Amino acid sequence: MLFIGVVAGGFLFIVSGGEPIDYVRTAVLRWQLAGREDELAQPASSDISEQIFEIPLGTAPFTIANNLQMSGLITDAELFVLYAQVEGYDREFEAGTYFLSPSLTIPQIAQMLTDSSNSAITFRVVEGWRIEEIADAIDQNPRFSFTGNDFLALVGRGAQFDQEIANMLGIPNGSSLEGFMFPDTYVLSANVTASELVNTLVSEFVSRTGEQMRLDAGADGYTMYDIVTIASIVERESVWNDENVLIASVYRNRLDIDMLLQADPTVQYGLDNSRGRYWANITVADYQGVNSPYNTYIYSGLPPGPIANPSLSAIRASVYPASSNYIFFRARCDGSNRHNFAVTFDEHLANAC
């Protein structure tokens, strides 16, 4: 009997990978879990809306399970703990912030709680968006704990922001941060605040544009605010990045000779969403009919500020435009979304469809 016991113990030691106690414990737990597959596969509800779930550092699996049940994310805390113990997740749960919905099953939730890096918010700011469009995107993302209006309160006209950065970029007092919300895809903390988001977007703008670009703009007599205003128009006019330098050259050339910019996107911006769209189609009548300081068909020089948040390509093109004599451009007639450029008005008319 002793020999049999020794052999059995040795066999158990081998098959358990040197952890016989854990092996037996897991076997018992698996036996307890057997037959409960349907319960594991049944979510708490069909509600797919996410809620924030926090795991503080050092929280025990039983506490995590109870908090999940109290939050309505699971219906059986004991079953959750049992499953986590069987699969070894109870040793892998990570402190952090998670986005969970009651439509997830216990196995799905248990696995998610082992990797807090998946709880980040991925947020994209698209080239050419207005700050209001960024606010709309915030409202459409249920993971943010703040609203689009909270964001606009920090970036709209009259908002208070870092004066040192405002001075560096040449942003006038009382102006908005339109144009300085750098377009990119961001991976944000699950607990990000509206203020932190704004700081992230502005900091990215400062980093990506760099000091040299600001110095070169200044050498030409432009502040970065002027450049971003030009770039925002270029962004809204251009479809192909390789045309940015040519479109920017047209506007820089017009400014040099005190010629009206006559940029359609400034008329659209001047409508201020009054037609239910931020970039509504305009008519020839709107060129004189939209009475806004942003309308560059009736007001000379640059508009009061940027009309959108331009890409780095458009910003760079506005600092370093192509060397050209062009003062006109219009869309080609082939549907390519490219443009024909002209020096004289007669050439411009000849480019009409």
Structure description:
- The chain is mainly alpha-helical.
- The chain has helices spanning 2-15, 20-33, 37-40, 61-70, 77-87, 106-112, 131-139, 148-155, 163-169, 194-219, 224-237, 244-256, 264-271, 286-289, 312-319, 345-350, and strands at residues 51-55, 96-100, 121-124, 185-188, 328-331, 339-342.
- Strand 5 (328-331) and strand 6 (339-342) form a beta hairpin.
- Helix 7 runs antiparallel to helix 8 (148-155), helix 11 (224-237) packs across helix 15 and helix 12 crosses helix 15 (312-319).
- It is elongated, with a radius of gyration of 30 Å.
- 32% of the residues are buried.
Helix- and strand-based class? mainly alpha
Helix count, per DSSP?
16
Instruction: Please count the beta strands (DSSP E, at least 2 residues each).
Output: 6
Q: Tell me the major beta sheet.
A: 2 strands, antiparallel
User: Poorly predicted ranges (pLDDT <50, ≥5 residues)?
Assistant: 5-13
Shape: elongated
Strand order of the largest sheet: 1-2
> Which percent bin holds the helix content?
40-55%
Query: How much is the average pLDDT?
Result: 90
Oligomer description = single chain
How much is the radius of gyration in Å? Answer: 30 Å
Order of helices and strands: HHHEHHEHEHHHEHHHHHHEEH
